[in-house]
Structures are given as structure tokens and as C-alpha cells.
Amino acid sequence: MDLTHILAFNLALAAAIASPGPAFLISVKTTLTAGRRAGLAVGAGLGLMASLWTLSALLGLDVIFTAFPWAYVAVKTIGALYLLYIAYGMWKGARTPLAPSEVKPARHAFLQGLMINLMNPKSVLFAAAVLVVIFPPDMALAQKGLIAANQLAIELMFYALVAFGMSTSTARAAYLRAKSHIDRIAAVVLSALGLRLLFGR
Q1: Which of 18, 55, 58, 130 pairs as cysteine with 144 (C-beta 3.0–4.6 A)?
Q2: What's the rounded Cα separation, in Å, for the pair 117 and 51?
Q3: How far is CA 108 from CA 21, 47, 114, in A?
């Protein structure tokens, strides 16, 4: 493994993180509704779980999912239902004004970030596919740990940028003006992602 492998992995990782998926939506929504601290916390949860999925792929967890399809289906189904539950809450509360009592503590945001990525087993299969293409086989355990640590650093930096960018007074004021529309659009997108996770392969 050399620097070119890491750079190629980081490019693929950046494209995956920035794609409009549940992790990105939850990061933006949490920051807009609960502030910068909660945005940083949810990003930390998302990044930590994503890097753990990558480490799991490096250690062969994808083989377990292939050998025991029921385990993959079970985790995928729970994850899809969790996304649909979040989407339902967003839709239901779209017209409700944001009150200070609704702002979640940072620890709750961190746990939500963990859960969003924990309940998406496709992450480990995606990671396994990318890793096989980019990295040489038979890497040492220390090198596998370095790849996971590198991903964690990239994820934390990305979500920190989201948290700082979306926590500005301008961004928050724009969100509050269009809250009902933004929440319903986010709910529809999350529902679509949940249904795709539930019924897709």
C-alpha cells in the first residue's frame, strides 16, 4: 500500500460522502435545527460508524453477509424501517415551528448518527468493493487500521464543514422561512432511500 492507493480511496470516499444520501441529509437537518454542536456530534457518529464498516470490510465481514444472507436482510430491513420512521417524523412535524425544547442534546445527535450508518449494511459491501479495487491484497493489520483511521479523519472533516457552513445565521434563517417545504422534501427523499434499501438487493 502506498500514497496513490490512499489518494484513490479518498477520492472515492469524497464522492460517496457528498452524494445525497441519508447521512448527508441528517447532517444538514440536524445542524439547521439543533445548531453547530449537534451537527458536529451527528457527524462524529456518522463518521465513526462508516469507518467501522470499512474496517469490518477489511477484516472480512462482507464474507459473513455473503455466507448468511438472512443476517444481511435482517440488518437491511431494520435500517430501512428506521429511515422510514425518521422520514415520518420529519413529515409530521414539517408545519410545527421549531421550539427550543425540540433541540436534541449533542449526545442524542451522536447516537442518531451512529444508528443511521449502523443500519445500512450496504456500507460494508460498498466498502469491500472499493477496497478490493483500490488496495493490494494481504495488507497487514496496521495498514487496515490506517485506512479506517484515514476514513474517520476525512468523514469528520467533511461533516465539520457541513456543521460550520449550515450553522450560520443566514442558513438557519433561510431554513426557518422554508421549514415546512424543506422538511417535507427531506422526508420524501429519506422515504425513497428507505424503500430502496428495503426492496433493493
Answers
A1: 58
A2: 10
A3: 20, 15, 10
pLDDT tens, position by position, 4-46: 888 888 887 777 777 667 788 888 888 888 888 999 999 999 9
Pairwise CA distance, residues 177 & 180, whole Å: 8
Alpha-carbon span 83 to 47, nearest angstrom: 18
Distance, in Å, from the CA atom of 173 to the CA atom of 177, rounded to the nearest integer, reads 6
Amino acid sitting at position 2: D
User: Count of alpha carbons within 13 Å of 196, Cβ hemisphere only?
Assistant: 10
Residue 32 phi/psi, 5° resolution?
-65, -40
All 3 cell numbers of residue 136? 493490494
Q: Using an 8 Å Cβ cutoff, are 5 and 136 in contact?
A: yes
* Amino acid code (one letter) for 76: K
Q: For the whole model, what pTM was predicted?
A: 0.76
